[in-house]
User: What shape does this take?
Amino acid sequence: MASLLQITKAHKSYGDQVLLDGADAVLSDNIKVGFIGRNGAGKSTLLRVLLGEEELDSGEIVRSSSLRLGYLRQHDPFLPDETTLAFLMRDSDQPNWKCGEVAGQFELKGAYLEGPIAKLSGGWQTRVKLAALLLHEPNLLLLDEPTNFLDLRTQILLEHFLQSHRSACLIVSHDRAFLSATCDHTLDLSRGKLTTFPGKVDAYLEFQKERRVHEERQNASLLTKRRHLEDFIARNKARASTAALAQSKSKQLEKLELTEIVRDEPTANIRPPRIEPRRGHALRCRDLAIGYPERQIASDVHLEIDHGSRAAVVGDNGQGKTTFLRTVVDSLKPLAGEVRWGFGCQIGVYAQHVYTSLPESQTVLEYLHKQAAFGKKDQEVLEVAGSFLFRRKHVDKPISVLSGGERARLCLAGLMLGQHNILILDEPGNHLDVDTVEALAEALLAYQGTVIFTSHDRHFTKRVATCIVEVRDGRVTNYNGQYDAYLYKVNKEIEAGERELATERTKLPPEILKASKAAPRRAHRNERDARKEIKTLERTIAQLDEQKRSLNAELLKSTNATEALRLHNEVSGLAEPLTEAEERWCQLQEEIEGAA
Assistant: This one.
């Protein structure tokens, strides 16, 4: 199995924050790796290093000469009025039938393929970027939180593609369901170290848990043995007849070493508002039409949600989930009909844009005091702040310096300090790490009020939801079934579409099918991409040259035969990657000169 990327003794810091501390890892071809770790651990920074956008403080990244990196772009590379098909052909330099074939795997057909990209929703534009990425035929895909803001259908389409795609992948995600479906290896970044595990993320987390339990038991056994030895030595060292035996036991005692157990990092412990449970209908919609003056999203909405329910609002991006939530909380007026809340409903809202519009000049503590219900004591506010990991000096931080994840936690902390018996949550899991999402799910399960929420995280939705509200094709309806049944339905629809695509492909002219099978895998690149890779290769060559010179200098000074053999082997091991890097550099220079 060939190595595509090798990370060796990587160090990277920002000020006092150490992200990588002697980290090592190898990424091999055809292996799909789920990359996990806490928010702020340094996962995105490492991806930028792998892409050549940042450099390590020390250590090295050795890249195979055959490496073709693919990265999902966050910016929009589209031209004004450009259609999806025109963009894919321009970006990939592939023929229209090939672009249409790959686009079809993401349900980009008809008006979605032939129409202007600018009219597509953000989720559909992400599908276009994914199709463009795959048309470049990379052999290592780097995906940084690909499920954020992707609707369920697009997530499943991407899953299906990755399951059948033969290239290697490194996927950063907090979505355990997505990682479990796509990745058979796990890479964990914690406290500056990289840990590789040859199994799925759930198996890795279980392994970590079992190992910690084993180490704790082992330490407890050693402590018991140590006490027995200490007691024996104390009783026998002063007696001439047993002094020698006591001395022997002292040596045994010195050899007993406890295993250092790495404790879990602090985790949010979310406590929901204490409210009186209510009965009856919390929300009623009658003859409701939602949307905007220039465009209606859905009409003839008749919906009832009972107190105590936890309703998941589901549907593809662009279908109107957020529009529906905005309408029921009265931040968007209905086009027709009515929205009626039950008597005594106190509504708390967490919207996707909330954490970006916080008062920058306030501190964490000042913001929480303003959000707290009347009568909340200072100690209660501090306890809630601490439960969301704002402790000691962190409560005095100005909001302007908080990260996305910290802002999301702050907004949720503000909600928990209220007396809301209705919570409206629009994508609450975005920007939160796995542990905080899990803590939020536990809190909502214990909450005695009503929750109406949207989420792209299937694990979270499955745990929390008691009923499903589907927004689709201009309708908003109670889906009569559990979330698992809804997932099954969506999967069946996607599989039917994939069978239809496969059937259509067999109808292509024989010469195109033959060309598709015979076409060599090649990476299309423009001059800018080539020059960027040359720059990365030059750094790699310089690092390998320096390492080789250093080893040769040590070899000349060495007088120990074993050490000399080891140094010789290390020098020999550098020959192949150095030759590959130099040959690739020459190849790229020829490409650029030929294009010119």
